[in-house]
């Protein structure tokens, strides 16, 4: 079975739950007292997708402002970016939009963007409606899910959707590492014009 390594980075405000999402996905656990990330942290998880194995190389970046300049190191060369906001913090949704702009300007042209509205267990404190977020995600052709790292809602689904958006080796008609870039150029034009 073919093994593909997919570099994925997580971006978003501090405290939105990026590390908690990764922790839930990789370890299937949740730590309410998790510390803010310093710099970035790295984890991997391999899942089967159809006839391929997808090894996610996950770069979990730090959301604190002082680490912002490091982000390009992590989104550069990424197959996908998961941009996380907190459904109980409107401000974190604005930050997400800034990340989308930055990725458009400086990110890999063909990057798959996934938007995760985390902490969907905290419905009473909701500030961002699911409809608005979904409409925004649709307008930029991004994957959209509301997640709860705490209650393990939509975490596996988030990564599954990323797997589905990555063109399979079979359908791209090229072998690993050869000509892949050329095949992926067309979506670049579409993504940057909206
Ligand atoms: N209720 C609830 N709390 C969550 C959820 N996910 C994370 N949290 C809490 O939110 C806080 C921040 O979580 P982190 O995972 O450290 O957030 P982060 O985005 O990695 O933050 P930085 O590393 O500073 O960028 C912690 O107290 C978590 O326990 C969730 O789905 N629901
Ligand atoms: Mg973190």
Salient structural properties:
194 residues, alpha/beta, six-stranded mixed beta sheet, 6 strands, 25% strand, globular, binds guanosine-5'-triphosphate, binds magnesium ion, RAB22A, member RAS oncogene family
Structural class designation: alpha/beta
What is the helical fraction, as a range of percent? 25-40%
Rg, nearest Å: 16 Å
Placed side by side, the strands forming the largest sheet appear as 2-3-1-4-5-6
Which word captures the global form?
globular
Mean pLDDT across every amino acid position? 90
| End-to-end CA span | 37 Å
Largest sheet, in brief, is: 6 strands, mixed
Describe it for me?
- The chain is α/β, with parallel strands linked by helices and 194 residues long.
- The protein has seven helices and six strands.
- A six-stranded mixed sheet has the order 2-3-1-4-5-6, sandwiched between helices.
- Strand 4, helix 3 (90-106) and strand 5 form a beta-alpha-beta unit.
- It starts with a strand and ends with a helix.
- The model is unreliable at 172-194 (pLDDT under 50).
- Bound molecules: guanosine-5'-triphosphate (GTP) and magnesium ion.
List the helices and strands and how they pair.
Blueprint: E1 2-11, H1 18-27, E2 40-49, E3 52-61, H2 71-75, E4 80-86, H3 90-106, E5 112-118, H4 130-139, E6 143-146, H5 155-165, H6 169-172, H7 180-192
Parallel strand pairs: 1-3, 1-4, 4-5, 5-6
Antiparallel strand pairs: 2-3
Bound molecules: guanosine-5'-triphosphate and magnesium ion.
The site of magnesium ion (MG) has 5 residues, from helix 1.
Organism: Erpetoichthys calabaricus (Rope fish)
Keywords: Cytoplasmic vesicle, Endosome, GTP-binding, Lipoprotein, Membrane, Nucleotide-binding, Prenylation
Protein name: RAB22A, member RAS oncogene family
